[in-house]
Amino acid sequence: METITVSKEQLHDEARRLRYEESYNFLIDIVGMDYGDSLGAIYYLSPSQKPEQVVALKTSTTNREQPELFSVCDLWDSASVYEREVYDFFGIRFVNHPDMRRIFLRHDWKGFPLRKDYDADPAINPVPLESERIEDMERVPSITIKMGERVEETHQAFADGDYVVNFGPQHPAMHGVLHLRVSLDGEVIKKIDPVFGYIHRGIEKMCESYTYPQILHLTDRLDYLSGTMNRHAVCLCCEKALEVEVPERAHYIRTIFDELTRIASHLLGWGCMCMDMGSITAFVYGMRDREKIMDIFEESSGGRLMPAYATIGGLAQDIHPNFQKKVKEFIPYMRKMLKEHHLLFTGNPIARGRMEGIGHLSREKAIALGATGPSGRASGWHNDIRKVEPYAAYAKVNFEEVLRPGGLTFDRYIIRLDEIEQSLRIIEQLVDNIPAEGGYAAKTKAVIKLPEGDFFQRVENARGQFGVHITSRGDKTPYRVKFRSPCLTLVGALKAIAPDTKVADLIMLGASLDYVIPCIDR
Amino acid sequence: MFSFSTVTQWIDDLLRQGLCDELVLLVEFILIGFALLAAYAVFALVLIYMERRVCAFMQCRLGPNRVGPFGIFQTVADMVKILLKELIHINRADHFLFRLAAFLVIVASVGTFGALPFAKGLQAVDFNMGVFYLLAVSSLGVVGILLAGWSSNSKYTMIGAMRSGAQLISYELSCGLSLLAIVVLAGTMQLSEIVEMQADGWFIFKGHVPAVIAFVCYLIAGHAETNRGPFDLPEAESELTAGYHTEYSGIQFGFFYLAEYLNMFIIAAIAATIFLGWWMPLHVPGWEGFNGAMDYIPSAVWFLGKTFFCVFLQLWVRWSFPRLRIDQLLKLEWKILMPICLINILLMAIIVAL
Lengths: 522, 354
Fold this sequence. Notes:
Strand order of the largest sheet of chain A: 1-4-3-2
Structural class of chain B: mainly alpha
Oligomer: heterodimer
CATH superfamily of the largest domain in chain A: Cytochrome-c3 Hydrogenase, chain B
């Protein structure tokens, strides 16, 4: 990976050059950093034409009291949420960013928790015991440079006369604790303001005091529906750093587990989307088929939702003797049930009427927003990490990366069912050929210490590109861990496509993007 | 065929032996009121149980199966629970209207229920404009729903109530127009006469194509009247949590819940009455033996059988289809159903004239 280091004054010019002259149009992630004497940020960029190419743009500022960087919101749409996150955790304010609110922590939180000199004393930030006015939380500060002059201002997120309805944090359609503040004109949506952080657990901060094998258990809790893949990403990242040779057997089994997880996740995503459109029966059907996968997981690993199966160097234990038989039984069963799902819902005229022509997300917009995964592929964006930089056993199997040019809700709906079929193909090719020799795990040291440096690894989880950035200083705990959440950008996509649709569509669009809240909040 | 009028006549005679006319009427009113309310509650319990079992069957589940044999006492237990629940006080709600709304909804539904005949001779009132009465009273419920949405002081309920207003008033048209087609055929609005005319064949068979069209239109529009999926926009649990009754709790919520199920029954009962010959057994002209055998089946069984068949149709639709969007819902009514119903009446008139 190429690394470019620039001073904070040159940051915006260099970013602009990369964006427009070298067409790095996909901002993968911004990683805030506390180097001790300075604060900084790492921008991971990739061009959509050559998705395997990644460049890290580094910058830093020595001002720890009033750190400021120039915003790159104008170059990449997805930067707006990432920069808010950096501000929230490191206190770096971004000039020309229109919305410099905290993103996960409370608006009145004191201190910036991922700084190394942060004081975690609970007396500084006591639990508030009184109900608060939401208007106070919606003051949006911003710093802009207008005609060479620095202007600091605040405005309200919503205008006075707006009819603002809360969707969440407790709401049947939110699949978790996301809070959408939605202003309506009758049934039509005017503006959405997502409020995050209700399930923020500070996982990245926790990682800094955990050893590497302990961190693995936190990854399952990010996006709990693709926990296996998230865990896989951290394992791959550590293995890359340690230069451990993982046995082929472990690679095969990990790949099968990943694909089974993907099927389970897509089934749930499909079911939830149907339920959000009012078809509860479809949801139960999805859950029923998902149960088979959970049973397979349980037999081999002991866990159902979170198998906790991959470890650094291989797997926690070998597969159960029944594993291959059960998986082979599952494949034809799932194919049969897919037909039933299409019969029940895809062909339904009401369902088609609801989905068609709504929620258009163009390819350019998807890239700018960083909406990866099935949602991006439904807009025709080739971004499947399994194809781009094949890991584990993906290079050894034939499968199609399903792309749809439409970018409409129906494309995002159908692409998940099509991906289930492709996942079945992958499993079919692997399950009979799991190598018997080599054992299921490589030997690693009792205390794992990563060598000094920055490590970055991407995998394709059920919702998109899941990235792990680890900065190590050679200790048994990492210096900084950052997870690239595919779901955070999907909420950004919702914000972009929902205006001018109806309330009923908002719920459906949210379900079609299929975000998982703990993955957003981390 | 056994007529329940012998029983009711016997009670009437018995009362008249000891009481003056006014008191007889009063006692009979009270008796009928109690009987209707009891029947209302029992039907609601049966319907809720039925819905749970049918829905479970469609979703590869078992449904309630622990309380009593086959779980039949589950709904009774739930009813006791809902009676004991706390009524939550809503801040800054309009409390008078808030309480009134729940009553209005249930009154509209009981009012319609009262006019239904449950078997031959078992009918509280036989109006000469029965069809008109059924339509008029059943549409009163929308007032209750609008009030509930308005008085709750909540945005979800407000949106739900507005949707409901648009939906119920629109679909009332198709409901009325499709029933009107049969009124044109029958030439009367009196329910008992409509039934008598179906002695030699139900209207759905006698009325040629227009009757079938009217039947289908009525089922769709009637289903929309009950606010159940795919027309459950006013409640739309995935969008508006519970729509117009989000803020209700305890037995006040129970009223909405009961009314919803009974409305389903009422719609099915009207469909059974007007199109499927009410309690009239299946008669085929010329097949004397068959007709005789059919007559041995009690009239109450015929009525309930037909009604629950229509209820089953509604459940089937409810648990298979996703929800419409508000603009699609109104388009379906104003651009598709209503024109069909209007043309259908014309067709029916031509057939009757010929």
